[in-house]
Amino acid sequence: MKKAIGIDLGGTNVRAALVGSDGSVIRRLKEPTTENVFDTLRAMVKELSKEGVEGIGVGAAGLVDKKQGRVILSPNIPSITGKGFDEIGDGLKVYLENDANAAALGEMWLGAGRDFESFVLMTLGTGIGGGFIHRGRLLNVSAEVGHMSVEQAGRKCMCGGSGCLELYASARAITEAVTKAIEGGAESILTQGNIYKLTPEDIYKAAFEGDNLARESLREAGRYLGIGIANLINIMSPDAVVLAGGLTGAWDLYIKEAIKEAQKRAFKSLFDRASIIQASLNDDAGVLGAAYLVFHGEESYIC
Amino acid sequence: MKKAIGIDLGGTNVRAALVGSDGSVIRRLKEPTTENVFDTLRAMVKELSKEGVEGIGVGAAGLVDKKQGRVILSPNIPSITGKGFDEIGDGLKVYLENDANAAALGEMWLGAGRDFESFVLMTLGTGIGGGFIHRGRLLNVSAEVGHMSVEQAGRKCMCGGSGCLELYASARAITEAVTKAIEGGAESILTQGNIYKLTPEDIYKAAFEGDNLARESLREAGRYLGIGIANLINIMSPDAVVLAGGLTGAWDLYIKEAIKEAQKRAFKSLFDRASIIQASLNDDAGVLGAAYLVFHGEESYIC
């Protein structure tokens, strides 16, 4: 069986896996993302390539230039902006993709996207990313769905734009909204901890325990997510919208609210034919999709 | 030379043309769109098919179901909602597409899109439509770019959604904004005519003569259009954005403002690589694209 190394450089952790061409994950590695991310990557590749591999796939957060094999801009991992990954391969061919695009390929190959001809993947984490699958192939576009502007006079975004979806609907948006509300005097059981170190999980737990601030913050973010989903349904008319990332744990509040809002806004006939479902590969989606790129190369892409 | 009939059912007029497979327009017909649009279509087809044709392509305003060959919903031409067009063909094969998708094929084949691997077409008229071309083929999706929500708490749209781009940036949006401002007491040379029968051309002319209300209304609509363009650049990373429709006549105010706004909002590297240009086929884009569908069938589409 052929083997490849899949790497997911998506955010706080670097994940790498040795993947078989049958989709099996033979071994997983995980390290925190530090400034010396290239040292981490070299060590991981050295460890995994012992067993003989075809090549390396990298899914990296940010805008990537596949032709030149480099990251154009990565707001979340500044140390990879402008960089390529050929050097980590030690002679092996390296395939570069955006992290959400890689996750979309992973879900298409082995996950929740398997049964759909076309789907939009949204990664709901610190930021919001996207990937478009059409008839079993990845649409070779930026798919920066977190940077659709949904508020004309909205907040300034790190990307240079304003009113971007991820400023209102991401994990960061939710924790910031809760922190700000507590600073402003809102009551919440979350005031018992350090309000500057809140995680989305803290907020989800508080919501589960009935905390009104947590519940309303998740719902508010969900309403914005619903706008983003409706826009993508109206534009891409997908068979499914596959939602990935830790925030999908808050399905009953955040995602249900999003679905309600999307239903209000999207064309009825397009909404009705789009299944809105949870991704199924969790943290493996990115490494599996990156490995898929190694096995399938240009055939991963539309035309 | 092979011949086909291309029909553009895009709005106030029905256009039909006899088109050669070399892209020549052999004959053009134009009739106003009435409730009896099917009678009009049959008469046009009868007239044009005298000279022997391969088939008929129809680009229709609204959501279309290509597989079933019928219009799902056409807010602008209610009489075609739910209808198919096989009967107008009198035995000839009929290909159905959305009108903006057909125009995108036309501009790709013979117009401003010819030199680009991928582009987004936007039709700027009464409403706002879109079509996505990727490596010389049409992406088989709804591309309802006029129904991206760009104002979270925006106006209600006929589509059922709210805050839709076309409520703020279309010809209808501009004339309505001017009429409302004049009702509210705003000064304008446009008060000399019937303010309830304003056309976009009236407003553009007034703007050209220095009328402040006309100028500001075009600029305001342009700013919203810029949000839409930025969103599409961030999502589709196109080589070009091709702008079609009568409103592009107001390039210096409306489109220039849109470009300025898009530049502020889109990822710099994606904005820089996207040419924003005017479509070149004018009213022929739709009929040519519809005829292209006849000549190329399924090969018009991605995969």
Lay out the secondary structure.
The structure is a homodimer of 303-residue chains.
Chain A: E1 3-9, E2 13-20, E3 25-32, H1 37-48, E4 55-60, E5 63-65, E6 70-73, E7 93-98, H2 99-110, E8 118-124, E9 128-134, E10 137-138, H3 166-169, H4 171-183, H5 200-208, H6 212-236, E11 240-244, H7 251-265, H8 268-273, E12 275-278, H9 284-296
Parallel strand pairs in A: 1-4, 4-7, 8-11, 11-12
Antiparallel strand pairs in A: 1-2, 2-3, 5-6, 8-9, 9-10
Short description:
Two copies of one chain form a homodimer. Chain A is built from nine helices and twelve strands. By secondary structure, the first copy, chain A, is of the alpha/beta class.
How would you describe this protein?
- 2 copies of one chain form a homodimer.
- Chain A is globular and about 55 Å long.
- Chain A starts with a strand and ends in a 7-residue tail after the last helix.
- The longest helix of chain A has 25 residues.
- Chain A has a 5-stranded mixed sheet with strand order 3-2-1-4-7.
- The mean pLDDT of chain A is 95.
- The first copy, chain A, has 9 helices and 12 strands.
- Chain A folds into 2 domains: 124 residues, Nucleotidyltransferase, domain 5; 165 residues, Nucleotidyltransferase, domain 5 (2-Layer Sandwich).
- In chain A, helix 2 packs across helix 9 and helix 5 crosses helix 6.
- Chain A is an alpha/beta fold and 303 residues long.
